[in-house]
Amino acid sequence: MLKISIIQLLPKFADQRQNIKKINKLLLRTSQSDLVVLPELASTGYNFINKEQAFSLAELPENSEYVEMLVSHAQKNKQIIVSGYHELYDNNLFNSSLLITEDGIAGKYRKVHLFMNEKAIYEPGDLGFPVFSIKGLKLGMLICFDYLFAEAWRIVGLKGAEIIAHPSNLITQNATKAIPAQAMINRFFVVTANRTGTERNITFNGRSFAVDPNGDFIVRLPDDKETISTFSINPKAARDKLITPLNHVFNDRFPDMYKEILEKDLT
């Protein structure tokens, strides 16, 4: 069995020092977990005034006090930590998710599908949709608004992902409808770590959750509370892709019939 913790966070916008202290304390409560998932942009907050402010708060992951803190917990507890991260790279900003182990940064995903004003701050992700083999697991990462795009889920599923870590800053309940369907369609686990609180004119709705390969909720968190939920799963359940003895979610596909999806306009 794999023990997982979701940290539903209330970060203080633009105060990385305080957020690092807070997350450090919360991680002390997840020391027995094998996998910990934190929200999108966990150390900075989300609603930047402009790109100049966003640049002032961005860091290289390799030179980050926040990342150092995450690595220290991963090393001490021999665990995996996934966290959203405000990344500076080659004079560009990316809304990223870092995969941390006791060896350091073991993987990275950059958000492809940017939501609303994110388009004025970030570059679209350029790393594709990777799946990482870590400690006997196959783990993919998506971020927040990526949930709306079935293609992203299918790619990580076809690459063998058993668990999708989904750091988020969600403001609607649509994800609680869409994600269970994607978990069922691809037969994998999804762990969505959302945040709560308000930044300027945006209120985040909490309600983090995890779903199993049948699309059923494992845990659901409250909407207005900074909290932790810990639960256990059997990742092997995500390796069974049979719907019936004669129907396999991937082997029954007809890829040649789907080529039209690569066209931008089918009208």
3D structure, described in words:
With 267 residues, the chain is of the alpha/beta class. The chain has a single domain (2-240), classed as Nitrilase/N-carbamoyl-D-aminoacid amidohydrolase. Helices cover 20% and strands 31% of the residues. It is built from five helices and 16 strands. The protein has helices at 16-28, 51-57, 65-77, 150-158, 175-186, and strands spanning 2-8, 35-37, 80-89, 92-101, 104-110, 131-134, 137-141, 163-167, 189-193, 196-199, 202-205, 209-211, 217-220, 227-233, 242-244, 247-248. The strands form four sheets. A six-stranded mixed β-sheet has the order 5-4-3-2-1-14. It has a six-stranded mixed β-sheet with strand order 6-7-8-9-12-13, covered by helices on one side. Strand 6 and strand 7 (137-141) form a beta hairpin. Helix 1 packs parallel to helix 3. The chain is globular. The protein starts with a strand and ends in a 19-residue tail after the last strand. The model has no long low-confidence stretch (mean pLDDT 98).
Salient structural properties:
5 helices; 6-stranded mixed sheet; globular; Nitrilase/N-carbamoyl-D-aminoacid amidohydrolase
Q: How would you summarize what this structure contains?
A:
This protein is an alpha/beta fold and 267 residues long. The chain contains 5 helices and 16 strands. The chain has one domain: Nitrilase/N-carbamoyl-D-aminoacid amidohydrolase, CATH 3.60.110.
Unreliable segments (pLDDT under 50, ≥5 consecutive)? none
Tell me what the CATH architecture is. 4-Layer Sandwich
Which CATH class? Alpha Beta
Please give the share of residues in helix: 10-25%
Strand order of the biggest β-sheet:
5-4-3-2-1-14
The named CATH superfamily: Carbon-nitrogen hydrolase
CATH topology: Nitrilase/N-carbamoyl-D-aminoacid amidohydrolase
Separation of the first and last Cα atoms: 48 Å
**Strand pairing plus helix content: what structural class?**
alpha/beta
* Beta-strand fraction estimate: 25-35%
Order of helices and strands: EHEHHEEEEEHEHEEEEEEEE
Tell me about the biggest sheet?
Answer: 6 strands, mixed
User: How many alpha or pi helices?
Assistant: 5
